[in-house]
Structure formats: structure tokens, C-alpha cells
User: Which sequence fits this backbone?
């Protein structure tokens, strides 16, 4: 049933965000309820159980929801989205899905050829949750715990957060902004904007959001690069006066963004990094400091 499928997805989100309130003891209870709901959903298809059985499950959900509300400021529901074009290397997509599954982060994948900024606008306009999260298909988290901290920050401040980037092809080539390769935004904040995520004359995809926040003096956060693996085909990219980023950049020691995923040698790097994350043996060996002076 559609209603029960939606309930399962909502519970998965609550399971993720129970970490936010420091409610680890609740996770097992939530996971058990998800399992029960999954079984009930299967029974609905195979044996058509009585309506009262489903109603009992829904009551359990409401009881659990009330319990969580007592110990957290508010239950946050989230949506995670990732866009990739039809010609994307399938190994990149598969590796991304493995990492998200490993961290139990339910991600909605969109395979379509569309302007990145317009797609983000479309997703946000139709979003049903307070918090909307975007990942490029070649961008993954290294730690779930820090990922939850990013959500907590955006929720508390009703703002946005993204990886730091500079549009080196657009003057003045010095403006640091929150780029959408990894991006979290509060929908209420987005709704009050009169700004599109699409690239404009004075900014790349998402850059105008940062310009708007700067103009209005809103609080927001950029995650800065700490390490990179290699130069791009264009050399290292300057992040104004902060440092450098390139192929295989790690932001805030936690968000890995491949860049230039169309090249086979970079695909192999992404697969290796994702495997290391899943096996809990990721390290910065062979990476370079993003803030080195020479």
C-alpha cells in the first residue's frame, strides 16, 4: 500500500535523525518497527491482512513519534537527492549507491539530462520535508556522524551549507561560495528566496544563493577543502587565498568529491575511495594538503 511505503520511508528518516538528538537507544526500536512494517506490507500483497493489523502498526508509529518528540526539539524529516546524466559511468553510480546504503541514507536518484540548477529548483519546489540534501553522483560522505552534524546546523539556523568552491572562470574568480556538489538547505529558507540555483552571468550553479545570503547577512556555512588527491586536467584550482582543490578533494575531512568523473582513471579512484569508506579503512595516505604553501 502506498501509505505504508511512505510510512516506512518516514521511519527511515527518523532512524537517521535519532542520532541528532542523541537517542541511540531508540534506533533499535525504530529499526524493528521498520522491519515489522516491511513484513506487514508484504503480507498486504500476499494475504490481505485485516485493516486492524495495519492500524495497530500505525498506532505504534504514533506512540514512537510522541516518545521521540519528548526528547528532541523537533523531528526533522529529510530528503536526499542525486542527479546523474544517462551517459554517466555506471560504476560511479553503483559505488555511490553502495556508500549511501552502507550509511543507511535513503537517496532518491534522478537519471535525466537537465540543467543542474533548474533540477535543484524543481526538487525543492516539490519537496515534502524540512531539510533537502543534494549530492553529486561523484560525491559521498566519509562519516555519518559528521553528516548528521551538518543537518543539525542547517536545521538550527534555518539556512544552508555546502562545499566551498570558486568559479575560476567567472570574474572576479575570488568569490568563495557554497557549491551544490554537496548541499543541505532548509526549505523555509529556500521559499523566501527569489533566486534560482541556475548558473547566471555573475555566478555558477548555486552561487547566487550565497551572494543573496551575503547581501542579506544571513548565516550560512561553507565546508573548506582539507585534502586533495591529484591535479585536474587544468591543474589545481585556486580557492581564492585559502588554498587548492582538485581531483579527489576532501572537504572538512568528511565529504569526498571526485570531480572530472568522465575520465577512467578518476573512476577507479572513486571506486577505491568508496570501497575504503564501506570497509572503514579510508585514510589520507597519498593525499595532499589543500592548504600547503608550495
Assistant:
Amino acid at each position: 500500500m502506498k501509505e505504508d511505503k511512505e510510512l516506512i520511508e518516514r521511519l527511515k528518516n527518523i532512524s537517521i535523525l535519532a542520532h541528532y538528538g542523541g537517542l541511540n537507544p531508540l534506533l533499535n526500536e525504530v529499526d524493528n518497527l521498520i522491519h515489522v512494517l516491511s513484513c506487514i506490507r508484504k503480507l498486504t500483497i500476499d494475504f490481505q491482512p485485516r485493516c486492524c493489523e495495519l492500524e495497530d502498526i500505525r498506532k505504534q508509529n504514533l506512540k514512537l513519534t510522541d516518545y521521540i518528540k519528548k526528547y528532541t526539539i523537533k523531528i526533522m524529516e529529510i530528503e536526499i537527492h542525486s542527479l546523474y546524466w544517462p551517459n554517466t559511468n555506471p560504476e560511479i553510480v553503483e559505488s555511490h549507491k553502495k556508500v549511501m546504503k552502507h550509511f543507511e541514507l535513503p537517496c532518491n536518484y534522478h537519471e535525466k539530462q537537465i540543467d543542474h540548477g533548474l533540477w535543484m529548483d524543481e526538487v525543492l519546489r516539490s519537496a515534502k520535508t524540512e531539510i533537502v540534501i543534494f549530492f553529486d553522483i561523484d560525491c559521498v560522505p566519509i562519516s555519518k556522524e559528521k553528516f548528521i552534524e551538518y543537518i543539525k546546523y542547517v536545521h538550527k539556523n534555518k539556512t544552508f551549507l555546502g562545499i566551498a568552491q570558486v568559479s575560476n572562470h567567472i570574474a572576479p574568480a575570488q568569490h568563495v561560495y557554497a557549491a551544490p556538489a554537496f548541499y543541505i538547505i532548509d526549505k523555509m529558507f529556500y521559499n523566501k528566496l527569489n533566486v534560482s540555483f541556475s548558473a547566471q552571468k555573475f555566478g555558477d550553479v548555486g552561487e547566487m544563493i550565497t551572494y543573496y545570503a551575503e547581501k542579506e547577512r544571513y548565516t550560512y556555512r561553507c565546508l573548506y577543502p582539507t585534502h586533495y588527491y591529484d591535479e585536474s586536467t587544468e591543474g589545481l584550482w585556486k580557492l581564492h587565498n585559502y588554498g587548492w582543490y582538485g581531483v579527489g578533494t576532501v572537504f572538512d575531512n568528511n565529504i569526498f568529491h571526485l570531480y572530472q568523473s568522465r575520465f577512467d582513471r578518476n573512476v577507479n579512484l572513486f571506486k577505491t575511495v568508496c570501497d575504503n569508506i564501506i570497509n572503514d579503512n579510508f585514510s589520507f595516505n597519498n593525499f595532499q594538503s589543500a592548504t600547503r604553501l608550495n
